[in-house]
Design brief:
Number of strands: 0
Structural class: mainly alpha
Order of helices and strands: H
Helix content: 25-40%
Oligomer: single chain
Strand content: under 5%
Radius of gyration: 7 Å
Number of helices: 1
Amino acid sequence: GIGVERDDLWLVFSAEERPGE
């Protein structure tokens, strides 16, 4: 995702690019 390395935010932002990671 955006690259925010926070446990909560990472899952949210990363889900846009990597759903399932």
